[in-house]
Amino acid sequence: MFLPNIALIFVVAIVLPGCLADSYAKPFNCTGQTINDDVREIALYYHNSLRTRINQDQVEDKNKTKLPKAENMYKMIYSCALEEEAAKLVDGCADTYNKSQAHGINFKYFGPGSNPTQLASPLSQILHTWSEQIVTKDWLPNNKYNNDKDLFEFSNMINAKTTAVGCSEAMCGTKASAACVFNEPDVANDQVLYVTGTPCTKDDECKTYTPSTCEVNASLCVKADATPAPPSSSGTTTSGSVATTPSSSTPTTSGSVATTPSSSTPTTSGSVATNSPSGGTTAQPTSSTTPAPSSTTTTPVTTTNAHKDPSINRICPTNSGVNDKIRNKTLEMHNWRRFVPLCTVLIILVGIACAAV
C-alpha cells in the first residue's frame, strides 16, 4: 500500500503541474475582457515588427524603393489603459468613431458581407492591412505625412514620437470592429514621421528618451524602466508617454491571422508585466519559446513563394497572408487543447485515489 502511494505522489508531482499550467498565458495584467493576451501580443508584434523591418531594409513602396532607415526609432509597449479606450470605440461593433485630440486612433469597421476571416478576427486582419498600405503608394518625401488617407494608419504605426499602443476588437456575427489607440495624437499634415538616419548599434545613440538602451537585433531603441505611477482607478488615459520596456521578442515579417481572438499568436511565451504611468500595464515577453506538444507537418518548399520573405513562409509558400510562426502556434494550441482532457482524467483519478487512502 505504501509503495503505490509513493508512486501516485510522484506522478502527481511530475505530471499535474504541466496539466494545470497555461503555457500560452502572457500576463499583460490587463483587466479588459474584449481581447486576451494572445491578441494583445499579436497587436504589439505587428507594430514593432513594422518598425524593425523599416530599419532592416525590408519595407518597400509600390516602386520597390526601400523606405529610409530611421534613427531614434523606439520599440512600442502595450498599454492596458489605451486598450480600455479602444474597447470603448469598438463597443457594439460601432461603425464610426470620434477622433481624439490626445490620442491617435486607427479604426476599422467590417460590415455585413465582409470576408468571414475578417469577421472572425478583425484586429489581426486589419493590422496586416495597415502595415502593408505602403506597397500601393509612393513613400513620402522627407518622411513627411501629406494627408494621404490611404497611408494614415501606416503613418500612425511608425510615428517615431509614439511609444505605446493599446488595441481592441468586437465581433457581432455579421459585422465587426477593431481599433488601436496610441499615446500620441494622430499624425498631422507635414509632420515628419521619423528622422532618416542610422539605426542604433549602441545605447548612447538612443537620445529621444534618456536613459535608453539599444536592442541591436531589432534595430530599435528601448526606453529604460521608470518608476511606474499607481494605476488610475478610472482608467482615464493621458497623452504622455508610457515609461516601461516594450516586448523583447525579435519581430519578424508580419502576417495575417485567420482565427478567433483566443487562438493564434507569435510563438514567444511568458512576459513580465509592469504598471504604466497612464494606468495600463505592459508586457515584456521573454526569449523562451513554448515547445509544441507534437511536431508540425510541413509541405516541401516549392519554387514559387508568394511571401516577400520566403524564409518565414515555407509551410504554405503560395499563401502570403500568414507566416510560419503563426501557423506553428495555431497547430501548437490545437494540440495542447487535445491534451487537456487527459489532464482532467488524471485529476479525477488522483482525487479518487486520495479519497481511498
From TrEMBL:
The keyword Signal applies. SMART domains: SCP. Pfam families: CAP. Residues 1-21 form the signal peptide. Residues 232-304 have a biased composition (Low complexity). Keywords: Signal. Residues 38-186 form the SCP domain. Residues 226-319 are annotated as: Disordered. InterPro entries: CAP_dom, CAP_sf. It comes from the Eukaryota. The keyword Signal applies. This is SCP domain-containing protein.
